Amino acid sequence: MKETIDRFLKDKFPQYVYKEEEVLSNLPVFFLKAEGLLQVFSALKTSPGIELNYLNDLTAVDWLGKKNPRFEVCYLLRSGNKSTTRVQFKVPVEEGEAVPSIVSLFKGANWPEREVFDLFGIPFRDHPQLERLIMPDNFQGHPLRKDYPLEGFGQDYLIEDLLTIHVKEDMGAE
Q1: What is the DSSP letter of 8?
Q2: Per-residue model confidence as pLDDT tens digits over 108-128
């Protein structure tokens, strides 16, 4: 499958291949540019013989001080028809750079994209509801970043403030 997808990307979307790099993994890994993500995934989803039509996972990695660009958004796609076919795609992004949302292609990307936004601070362009998913609304920062302080402002968000916010919202609803 790796050769098929490699040939597909080089033939149809060479402008969106970020780089070719061998990665020690039991999965084929491809690096894509953020601007071509929707076009490439749409084609891979419907292309006969490939049909990567199931989003298995979506997460991110912070490579602070080890790689440039700093972040990689990682997508694990597989074929719903061929359960053994799984392919990983990585999209390198700089600090503050937005990645196009793939919710329009894979509805299951909604919460994982919100989780990545919440924990890493990576924004997803055109996401239908990009807001915190795990951390409280008044939490400061993004706790899975490598430069997030182990002690300091993040631990000091006040539960009392959060309760006050939600009590006011609840009282306002009545």
Answers
A1: H
A2: 999 999 999 999 999 999 999
